[in-house]
Amino acid sequence: MSEPANALPAGAGGLPEPSGRPSPAAAAPVPDSILDVVTAGLGRREQHPKRVIVIGAGMAGLVAAFELQRQGHEPVVLEAQNRVGGRVYTMRDFAPGLYAEAGAMRIPRVHTLTLEYCKLFGLKMRPFVMGNARTLLHVAGRTMTFADADADPGRLPFQLTEAERGKTWMQMWDEATAEIKQAYDEAGQAGWERIVQQYDDMSLREFLEHKGWSEGAIEMYAILSFREQNMNTAVIEQFFELIGRSFEDMRYIEGGTDLLARAFYERIEQCVRFGAAVKAIEQDADGVTVHYANAAGRFSERGDYAICTLPFPVLSNIEVSPALSPSKRQAIRELRYNASTKILFQVRRRFWESEPYGIVGGTTATDLPIRRVVYPSAADPDSERGILLASYTWGQDALRWGSMSEKDRIEEALEDVAKIHPEIREEFEVGASHAWFSDPYAGGAFAQFEPGQATRMQKHILAPEGRIYFAGEHCSLYHAWIQGALESGIRAAATIHSLPAPETARELITV
Q1: Which of 213, 355, 396, 477 is the most exposed place for a label (fewest CB within 10 A)?
Q2: pTM (predicted TM-score)
Q3: Where are the alpha helices (DSSP H) in 335-480?
Q4: Which tops the pLDDT comparison, 93 or 30?
Q5: Contact criterion met (CB below 8 Å) for 156 and 220
Protein backbone atom coordinates (compact mmCIF):
# COMPACT_ATOMS: atom_id res chain seq x y z
CA MET A 1 0.00 0.00 0.00
CA SER A 2 1.34 3.44 -0.88
CA GLU A 3 2.00 6.00 1.84
CA PRO A 4 -0.70 8.61 2.50
CA ALA A 5 0.00 12.03 1.07
CA ASN A 6 0.78 13.46 4.49
CA ALA A 7 3.30 10.77 5.45
CA LEU A 8 6.76 11.81 6.57
CA PRO A 9 9.58 11.60 4.01
CA ALA A 10 11.22 8.25 3.42
CA GLY A 11 13.76 6.94 5.89
CA ALA A 12 13.63 5.32 9.30
CA GLY A 13 10.35 6.61 10.55
CA GLY A 14 10.46 9.32 7.95
CA LEU A 15 13.25 11.06 9.86
CA PRO A 16 16.84 11.73 8.82
CA GLU A 17 19.17 9.03 10.04
CA PRO A 18 21.50 10.27 12.78
CA SER A 19 25.08 9.90 11.66
CA GLY A 20 27.78 8.13 13.61
CA ARG A 21 29.72 11.38 13.83
CA PRO A 22 28.56 14.80 15.03
CA SER A 23 27.06 16.88 12.24
CA PRO A 24 26.04 20.52 11.90
CA ALA A 25 22.47 19.40 11.29
CA ALA A 26 22.44 18.27 14.89
CA ALA A 27 24.08 21.45 16.14
CA ALA A 28 21.66 23.64 14.24
CA PRO A 29 17.88 23.60 14.79
CA VAL A 30 16.42 20.11 14.37
CA PRO A 31 15.11 19.16 10.91
CA ASP A 32 11.58 20.20 9.98
CA SER A 33 10.60 16.53 9.73
CA ILE A 34 11.17 16.19 13.47
CA LEU A 35 9.62 19.54 14.39
CA ASP A 36 6.53 18.68 12.38
CA VAL A 37 5.93 15.65 14.60
CA VAL A 38 4.90 17.98 17.43
CA THR A 39 1.82 19.15 15.56
CA ALA A 40 1.30 16.49 12.88
CA GLY A 41 2.36 13.28 14.62
CA LEU A 42 4.46 10.47 13.14
CA GLY A 43 2.52 10.18 9.90
CA ARG A 44 -0.59 8.15 9.14
CA ARG A 45 -0.43 4.65 7.68
CA GLU A 46 -2.72 1.62 7.67
CA GLN A 47 -1.31 -1.17 9.84
CA HIS A 48 -1.94 -3.28 12.89
CA PRO A 49 -1.11 -1.28 16.04
CA LYS A 50 2.12 -2.29 17.71
CA ARG A 51 2.60 -2.97 21.40
CA VAL A 52 5.78 -1.19 22.51
CA ILE A 53 7.40 -1.55 25.92
CA VAL A 54 9.03 1.76 26.85
CA ILE A 55 11.62 1.37 29.60
CA GLY A 56 11.89 4.56 31.63
CA ALA A 57 9.58 7.55 32.00
CA GLY A 58 12.19 10.24 31.53
CA MET A 59 11.67 12.78 28.77
CA ALA A 60 12.71 10.36 26.00
CA GLY A 61 10.34 7.64 27.21
CA LEU A 62 7.48 10.08 27.72
CA VAL A 63 7.70 11.61 24.25
CA ALA A 64 8.10 8.20 22.60
CA ALA A 65 5.01 6.83 24.37
CA PHE A 66 3.06 10.02 23.70
CA GLU A 67 3.75 9.98 19.97
CA LEU A 68 3.15 6.23 19.63
CA GLN A 69 -0.17 6.48 21.43
CA ARG A 70 -1.20 9.45 19.26
CA GLN A 71 -0.87 7.15 16.24
CA GLY A 72 -2.94 4.35 17.78
CA HIS A 73 -0.15 2.12 19.03
CA GLU A 74 -0.10 0.54 22.50
CA PRO A 75 2.83 1.79 24.58
CA VAL A 76 3.46 0.41 28.06
CA VAL A 77 5.83 2.55 30.11
CA LEU A 78 7.78 0.91 32.94
CA GLU A 79 9.15 3.42 35.46
CA ALA A 80 11.07 2.32 38.55
CA GLN A 81 10.44 5.52 40.51
CA ASN A 82 7.22 7.10 41.76
CA ARG A 83 7.50 10.09 39.42
CA VAL A 84 8.08 10.89 35.75
CA GLY A 85 10.71 13.11 34.18
CA GLY A 86 13.96 11.31 34.98
CA ARG A 87 16.62 13.99 35.23
CA VAL A 88 13.93 16.62 34.92
CA TYR A 89 13.35 16.81 38.66
CA THR A 90 11.65 19.80 40.25
CA MET A 91 11.94 19.69 44.04
CA ARG A 92 8.86 21.03 45.82
CA ASP A 93 9.62 20.21 49.49
CA PHE A 94 9.95 23.86 50.43
CA ALA A 95 7.64 26.56 51.76
CA PRO A 96 4.34 26.76 49.84
CA GLY A 97 4.86 28.19 46.37
CA LEU A 98 8.62 27.61 46.31
CA TYR A 99 10.38 25.03 44.18
CA ALA A 100 13.87 24.34 42.84
CA GLU A 101 15.37 22.42 39.94
CA ALA A 102 17.61 19.53 40.92
CA GLY A 103 18.04 18.70 37.24
CA ALA A 104 17.26 20.45 33.95
CA MET A 105 16.49 24.13 34.54
CA ARG A 106 16.88 26.06 31.26
CA ILE A 107 16.03 25.83 27.57
CA PRO A 108 18.04 27.63 24.85
CA ARG A 109 16.10 29.59 22.26
CA VAL A 110 17.60 27.39 19.52
CA HIS A 111 16.12 24.25 21.10
CA THR A 112 13.02 24.62 19.00
CA LEU A 113 11.80 21.06 19.51
CA THR A 114 11.60 21.51 23.29
CA LEU A 115 9.95 24.90 22.93
CA GLU A 116 7.40 23.53 20.45
CA TYR A 117 6.25 20.94 22.98
CA CYS A 118 6.04 23.67 25.63
CA LYS A 119 3.87 25.62 23.21
CA LEU A 120 1.74 22.55 22.42
CA PHE A 121 1.00 22.08 26.11
CA GLY A 122 0.44 25.76 26.82
CA LEU A 123 3.36 26.16 29.21
CA LYS A 124 4.47 29.69 30.06
CA MET A 125 8.09 30.64 29.46
CA ARG A 126 10.24 33.30 31.08
CA PRO A 127 13.79 34.53 30.37
CA PHE A 128 16.59 32.67 32.16
CA VAL A 129 19.35 35.14 32.97
CA MET A 130 22.78 33.77 32.16
CA GLY A 131 25.21 36.71 32.28
CA ASN A 132 24.85 39.47 34.86
CA ALA A 133 27.56 42.09 35.41
CA ARG A 134 26.45 42.51 39.02
CA THR A 135 27.19 38.90 39.99
CA LEU A 136 30.43 38.21 41.81
CA LEU A 137 33.83 36.63 41.40
CA HIS A 138 35.47 35.22 44.51
CA VAL A 139 38.98 33.98 43.75
CA ALA A 140 42.00 33.69 46.05
CA GLY A 141 40.03 35.25 48.87
CA ARG A 142 39.11 38.41 46.93
CA THR A 143 35.58 39.34 45.87
CA MET A 144 34.61 41.65 43.02
CA THR A 145 31.80 41.98 40.50
CA PHE A 146 32.04 40.62 36.98
CA ALA A 147 31.73 44.23 35.79
CA ASP A 148 34.85 45.19 37.74
CA ALA A 149 36.76 42.16 36.51
CA ASP A 150 35.79 42.78 32.87
CA ALA A 151 36.77 46.44 33.14
CA ASP A 152 40.17 45.57 34.61
CA PRO A 153 41.11 41.88 34.10
CA GLY A 154 44.44 42.63 35.76
CA ARG A 155 42.68 42.58 39.13
CA LEU A 156 42.30 38.82 38.82
CA PRO A 157 45.05 36.74 40.48
CA PHE A 158 46.13 34.77 37.42
CA GLN A 159 49.66 34.67 36.00
CA LEU A 160 49.23 35.64 32.35
CA THR A 161 51.66 36.31 29.53
CA GLU A 162 52.10 39.78 28.11
CA ALA A 163 49.90 38.88 25.12
CA GLU A 164 47.15 37.61 27.43
CA ARG A 165 47.04 40.50 29.88
CA GLY A 166 44.11 42.86 29.65
CA LYS A 167 41.79 40.28 28.08
CA THR A 168 38.77 38.64 29.67
CA TRP A 169 38.44 34.87 29.55
CA MET A 170 35.55 35.25 27.11
CA GLN A 171 37.61 37.39 24.74
CA MET A 172 40.38 34.80 24.78
CA TRP A 173 37.92 31.95 24.20
CA ASP A 174 36.29 33.79 21.29
CA GLU A 175 39.71 34.33 19.70
CA ALA A 176 40.69 30.69 20.19
CA THR A 177 37.48 29.36 18.64
CA ALA A 178 37.09 31.90 15.83
CA GLU A 179 38.33 29.33 13.30
CA ILE A 180 35.73 26.82 14.50
CA LYS A 181 32.83 29.21 13.96
CA GLN A 182 34.26 30.35 10.64
CA ALA A 183 34.69 26.79 9.35
CA TYR A 184 31.10 25.95 10.20
CA ASP A 185 29.66 29.23 8.90
CA GLU A 186 31.49 28.93 5.59
CA ALA A 187 31.27 25.20 4.85
CA GLY A 188 28.51 23.75 7.02
CA GLN A 189 28.70 19.94 7.06
CA ALA A 190 32.06 19.82 5.33
CA GLY A 191 33.47 22.38 7.73
CA TRP A 192 32.19 20.48 10.73
CA GLU A 193 33.67 17.23 9.40
CA ARG A 194 37.05 18.94 9.16
CA ILE A 195 36.70 20.22 12.72
CA VAL A 196 35.90 16.73 14.01
CA GLN A 197 38.76 15.18 12.05
CA GLN A 198 41.23 17.71 13.43
CA TYR A 199 40.07 17.94 17.04
CA ASP A 200 38.13 14.78 17.95
CA ASP A 201 41.12 13.31 19.79
CA MET A 202 41.76 16.48 21.80
CA SER A 203 40.56 17.32 25.28
CA LEU A 204 39.52 20.83 26.16
CA ARG A 205 42.81 21.39 27.99
CA GLU A 206 44.81 20.04 25.05
CA PHE A 207 43.00 22.41 22.69
CA LEU A 208 43.87 25.44 24.81
CA GLU A 209 47.49 24.27 25.05
CA HIS A 210 47.45 23.81 21.26
CA LYS A 211 46.35 27.45 21.01
CA GLY A 212 49.33 28.53 23.09
CA TRP A 213 47.51 29.44 26.28
CA SER A 214 49.57 29.80 29.44
CA GLU A 215 48.73 27.82 32.57
CA GLY A 216 47.42 31.01 34.15
CA ALA A 217 45.06 31.62 31.24
CA ILE A 218 43.85 28.01 31.34
CA GLU A 219 43.19 28.34 35.07
CA MET A 220 41.30 31.60 34.55
CA TYR A 221 39.15 30.07 31.82
CA ALA A 222 38.53 26.90 33.83
CA ILE A 223 37.36 28.70 36.97
CA LEU A 224 35.36 31.51 35.40
CA SER A 225 33.64 29.29 32.82
CA PHE A 226 32.88 26.60 35.47
CA ARG A 227 34.73 23.95 33.44
CA GLU A 228 37.70 23.23 35.68
CA GLN A 229 36.44 19.71 36.32
CA ASN A 230 35.71 19.09 32.62
CA MET A 231 39.04 20.09 31.14
CA ASN A 232 39.87 16.51 30.14
CA THR A 233 36.61 15.87 28.27
CA ALA A 234 36.39 16.04 24.48
CA VAL A 235 36.73 19.58 23.17
CA ILE A 236 34.19 18.90 20.44
CA GLU A 237 31.53 18.82 23.18
CA GLN A 238 32.28 22.52 23.62
CA PHE A 239 32.44 23.11 19.87
CA PHE A 240 29.05 21.49 19.38
CA GLU A 241 27.46 23.86 21.90
CA LEU A 242 29.44 26.79 20.51
CA ILE A 243 28.20 26.49 16.93
CA GLY A 244 24.79 25.41 18.19
CA ARG A 245 24.56 28.60 20.30
CA SER A 246 23.35 26.53 23.23
CA PHE A 247 23.93 29.18 25.89
CA GLU A 248 22.29 32.12 24.16
CA ASP A 249 18.86 33.55 24.97
CA MET A 250 17.76 31.02 27.57
CA ARG A 251 14.22 30.37 28.80
CA TYR A 252 12.71 28.48 31.72
CA ILE A 253 9.26 27.04 32.32
CA GLU A 254 7.30 29.18 34.74
CA GLY A 255 6.18 27.00 37.64
CA GLY A 256 8.85 24.32 37.19
CA THR A 257 10.45 22.23 34.46
CA ASP A 258 8.52 19.18 35.63
CA LEU A 259 5.37 20.75 34.17
CA LEU A 260 6.59 19.58 30.77
CA ALA A 261 7.01 16.02 32.04
CA ARG A 262 3.60 16.17 33.70
CA ALA A 263 1.99 17.40 30.49
CA PHE A 264 3.21 14.30 28.65
CA TYR A 265 2.21 12.05 31.54
CA GLU A 266 -1.35 13.40 31.76
CA ARG A 267 -1.90 12.30 28.16
CA ILE A 268 -0.51 8.77 28.61
CA GLU A 269 -1.34 8.19 32.28
CA GLN A 270 -3.00 4.80 31.74
CA CYS A 271 0.12 3.51 29.96
CA VAL A 272 2.52 4.10 32.87
CA ARG A 273 3.43 1.52 35.53
CA PHE A 274 5.23 3.08 38.51
CA GLY A 275 7.55 1.19 40.85
CA ALA A 276 8.45 -1.12 37.98
CA ALA A 277 12.19 -1.77 38.30
CA VAL A 278 13.31 -3.59 35.17
CA LYS A 279 15.49 -6.62 35.90
CA ALA A 280 15.85 -8.37 32.54
CA ILE A 281 15.03 -8.00 28.84
CA GLU A 282 14.50 -10.97 26.55
CA GLN A 283 13.80 -10.90 22.85
CA ASP A 284 13.11 -13.45 20.14
CA ALA A 285 12.01 -13.39 16.53
CA ASP A 286 8.45 -12.40 17.46
CA GLY A 287 8.80 -9.84 20.24
CA VAL A 288 10.37 -8.55 23.42
CA THR A 289 9.64 -9.56 27.03
CA VAL A 290 10.62 -7.16 29.81
CA HIS A 291 10.78 -8.53 33.35
CA TYR A 292 10.34 -6.12 36.24
CA ALA A 293 9.78 -6.18 39.97
CA ASN A 294 8.05 -4.14 42.61
CA ALA A 295 7.25 -4.69 46.29
CA ALA A 296 4.41 -7.02 45.35
CA GLY A 297 6.53 -9.43 43.31
CA ARG A 298 7.93 -10.05 39.84
CA PHE A 299 6.03 -9.42 36.60
CA SER A 300 6.56 -9.38 32.83
CA GLU A 301 5.31 -7.38 29.88
CA ARG A 302 5.42 -8.63 26.31
CA GLY A 303 5.56 -6.34 23.29
CA ASP A 304 6.35 -6.30 19.60
CA TYR A 305 9.24 -3.88 20.22
CA ALA A 306 10.95 -2.12 23.12
CA ILE A 307 12.46 1.34 23.53
CA CYS A 308 15.12 1.45 26.25
CA THR A 309 15.69 4.98 27.54
CA LEU A 310 17.76 4.04 30.60
CA PRO A 311 21.10 5.80 31.09
CA PHE A 312 23.90 3.38 30.29
CA PRO A 313 25.10 3.11 33.94
CA VAL A 314 21.63 1.81 34.83
CA LEU A 315 21.33 -0.40 31.75
CA SER A 316 24.67 -2.03 32.61
CA ASN A 317 23.00 -3.76 35.59
CA ILE A 318 20.17 -5.29 33.55
CA GLU A 319 20.40 -8.77 32.04
CA VAL A 320 19.69 -8.80 28.30
CA SER A 321 19.10 -12.05 26.42
CA PRO A 322 20.37 -12.82 23.86
CA ALA A 323 23.39 -10.75 24.81
CA LEU A 324 23.81 -7.36 23.21
CA SER A 325 26.41 -7.01 20.48
CA PRO A 326 30.05 -6.54 21.56
CA SER A 327 30.10 -2.96 20.23
CA LYS A 328 26.96 -2.03 22.19
CA ARG A 329 28.33 -3.62 25.37
CA GLN A 330 31.57 -1.70 24.94
CA ALA A 331 29.67 1.57 24.47
CA ILE A 332 27.64 0.88 27.62
CA ARG A 333 30.82 0.22 29.59
CA GLU A 334 32.86 3.13 28.28
CA LEU A 335 30.48 6.05 27.80
CA ARG A 336 31.36 8.62 30.44
CA TYR A 337 28.64 10.19 32.57
CA ASN A 338 29.45 13.47 34.29
CA ALA A 339 28.68 13.88 37.96
CA SER A 340 26.63 16.85 39.09
CA THR A 341 25.47 17.93 42.55
CA LYS A 342 23.17 20.79 43.45
CA ILE A 343 22.75 22.27 46.94
CA LEU A 344 19.75 24.55 47.48
CA PHE A 345 18.91 27.00 50.24
CA GLN A 346 15.51 28.32 51.21
CA VAL A 347 15.96 31.82 52.63
CA ARG A 348 13.61 34.05 54.57
CA ARG A 349 14.59 37.09 52.47
CA ARG A 350 16.15 37.28 49.00
CA PHE A 351 18.92 39.54 50.26
CA TRP A 352 20.90 39.33 47.01
CA GLU A 353 18.27 41.46 45.25
CA SER A 354 18.87 44.36 47.66
CA GLU A 355 21.83 46.70 47.93
CA PRO A 356 24.74 46.40 47.85
CA TYR A 357 24.23 43.50 45.43
CA GLY A 358 21.16 44.24 43.30
CA ILE A 359 21.39 40.79 41.68
CA VAL A 360 18.49 39.25 39.77
CA GLY A 361 19.65 36.24 37.80
CA GLY A 362 23.12 35.21 36.73
CA THR A 363 25.90 33.23 38.40
CA THR A 364 28.65 33.97 40.89
CA ALA A 365 31.94 32.18 40.19
CA THR A 366 34.33 31.03 42.91
CA ASP A 367 37.36 28.86 43.51
CA LEU A 368 35.66 27.55 46.66
CA PRO A 369 34.27 24.00 46.86
CA ILE A 370 30.76 25.33 46.08
CA ARG A 371 32.15 26.57 42.74
CA ARG A 372 29.14 28.61 41.62
CA VAL A 373 26.05 30.23 43.03
CA VAL A 374 23.05 30.65 40.71
CA TYR A 375 20.44 33.31 41.47
CA PRO A 376 16.75 33.16 40.52
CA SER A 377 16.09 34.86 37.19
CA ALA A 378 13.02 36.72 38.42
CA ALA A 379 12.00 38.54 41.59
CA ASP A 380 8.73 37.49 43.21
CA PRO A 381 6.82 40.62 44.27
CA ASP A 382 4.42 38.58 46.41
CA SER A 383 6.97 37.01 48.75
CA GLU A 384 10.38 37.81 50.22
CA ARG A 385 11.28 34.14 50.54
CA GLY A 386 13.21 32.46 47.81
CA ILE A 387 15.44 29.57 46.76
CA LEU A 388 19.15 30.07 46.11
CA LEU A 389 21.13 27.50 44.14
CA ALA A 390 23.98 27.74 46.61
CA SER A 391 26.27 25.26 44.87
CA TYR A 392 26.21 23.77 41.38
CA THR A 393 29.15 21.48 40.70
CA TRP A 394 30.35 19.00 38.09
CA GLY A 395 32.95 16.24 37.97
CA GLN A 396 35.24 15.65 40.93
CA ASP A 397 33.74 18.61 42.78
CA ALA A 398 30.30 17.03 42.50
CA LEU A 399 31.61 13.63 43.59
CA ARG A 400 33.12 15.21 46.69
CA TRP A 401 29.78 16.75 47.67
CA GLY A 402 27.99 13.55 46.73
CA SER A 403 30.11 11.53 49.16
CA MET A 404 28.77 13.57 52.10
CA SER A 405 25.53 13.25 53.99
CA GLU A 406 22.96 15.87 53.07
CA LYS A 407 23.38 17.50 56.48
CA ASP A 408 27.13 17.89 55.91
CA ARG A 409 26.61 19.20 52.38
CA ILE A 410 24.33 21.95 53.61
CA GLU A 411 26.55 22.92 56.56
CA GLU A 412 29.72 23.10 54.46
CA ALA A 413 27.97 24.98 51.66
CA LEU A 414 26.75 27.51 54.24
CA GLU A 415 30.36 28.09 55.29
CA ASP A 416 31.39 28.80 51.69
CA VAL A 417 28.43 31.00 50.78
CA ALA A 418 28.98 33.06 53.93
CA LYS A 419 32.43 34.04 52.61
CA ILE A 420 30.66 35.80 49.73
CA HIS A 421 27.28 36.65 51.26
CA PRO A 422 27.59 36.93 55.07
CA GLU A 423 23.83 37.58 55.19
CA ILE A 424 23.16 33.91 54.52
CA ARG A 425 23.65 33.02 58.18
CA GLU A 426 20.70 35.19 59.21
CA GLU A 427 18.44 34.45 56.25
CA PHE A 428 18.92 30.68 55.79
CA GLU A 429 15.96 28.48 56.76
CA VAL A 430 16.26 25.00 55.25
CA GLY A 431 18.38 23.26 52.65
CA ALA A 432 18.11 20.41 50.16
CA SER A 433 20.42 18.74 47.68
CA HIS A 434 20.66 16.11 44.99
CA ALA A 435 23.75 14.22 43.77
CA TRP A 436 23.09 12.69 40.36
CA PHE A 437 26.06 10.34 40.36
CA SER A 438 24.70 8.72 43.53
CA ASP A 439 21.19 8.47 42.11
CA PRO A 440 20.57 4.76 41.38
CA TYR A 441 18.13 5.65 38.58
CA ALA A 442 20.59 7.93 36.79
CA GLY A 443 24.22 7.05 37.51
CA GLY A 444 25.26 10.56 36.52
CA ALA A 445 23.85 13.85 35.31
CA PHE A 446 24.52 13.52 31.58
CA ALA A 447 26.67 11.74 29.02
CA GLN A 448 29.87 13.48 28.01
CA PHE A 449 32.39 12.24 25.48
CA GLU A 450 36.03 11.73 26.23
CA PRO A 451 38.46 12.47 23.37
CA GLY A 452 37.87 10.17 20.42
CA GLN A 453 34.58 8.73 21.64
CA ALA A 454 32.28 10.71 19.36
CA THR A 455 33.72 9.21 16.20
CA ARG A 456 34.35 5.77 17.68
CA MET A 457 31.20 5.21 19.71
CA GLN A 458 28.26 7.31 18.55
CA LYS A 459 27.01 4.88 15.91
CA HIS A 460 27.12 2.03 18.43
CA ILE A 461 25.27 4.06 21.06
CA LEU A 462 22.45 4.70 18.58
CA ALA A 463 22.27 1.29 16.91
CA PRO A 464 19.19 -0.86 17.66
CA GLU A 465 19.65 -4.43 18.87
CA GLY A 466 17.07 -6.60 17.16
CA ARG A 467 13.68 -5.37 18.39
CA ILE A 468 15.20 -3.13 21.06
CA TYR A 469 15.66 0.56 20.24
CA PHE A 470 17.49 3.12 22.34
CA ALA A 471 16.73 6.71 23.31
CA GLY A 472 17.79 9.31 25.86
CA GLU A 473 20.06 12.34 25.85
CA HIS A 474 23.02 9.97 25.44
CA CYS A 475 21.54 8.87 22.09
CA SER A 476 21.69 12.42 20.76
CA LEU A 477 24.48 14.93 20.38
CA TYR A 478 22.47 17.27 22.61
CA HIS A 479 24.12 15.83 25.71
CA ALA A 480 22.69 17.21 28.98
CA TRP A 481 19.70 18.87 27.30
CA ILE A 482 15.98 18.06 27.23
CA GLN A 483 16.21 18.54 23.46
CA GLY A 484 18.46 15.49 23.14
CA ALA A 485 16.04 13.28 25.02
CA LEU A 486 13.05 14.47 22.98
CA GLU A 487 14.82 14.15 19.64
CA SER A 488 16.02 10.63 20.37
CA GLY A 489 12.61 9.54 21.69
CA ILE A 490 10.90 10.76 18.54
CA ARG A 491 13.43 8.99 16.31
CA ALA A 492 12.92 5.68 18.11
CA ALA A 493 9.14 6.01 18.03
CA ALA A 494 9.14 7.02 14.37
CA THR A 495 11.34 4.09 13.41
CA ILE A 496 9.05 1.58 15.15
CA HIS A 497 6.00 3.28 13.63
CA SER A 498 7.48 2.73 10.15
CA LEU A 499 8.34 -0.96 10.67
CA PRO A 500 6.09 -3.80 9.56
CA ALA A 501 3.46 -4.67 12.16
CA PRO A 502 3.01 -8.29 13.23
CA GLU A 503 0.07 -10.12 11.74
CA THR A 504 -2.06 -10.47 14.83
CA ALA A 505 -5.71 -10.52 15.69
CA ARG A 506 -5.57 -6.79 16.42
CA GLU A 507 -7.86 -4.71 14.31
CA LEU A 508 -6.27 -3.17 11.23
CA ILE A 509 -6.46 0.60 11.65
CA THR A 510 -4.94 3.73 10.15
CA VAL A 511 -2.30 4.88 12.63
Answers
A1: 355
A2: 0.92
A3: 395-402, 406-420, 424-427, 453-462
A4: 93
A5: yes
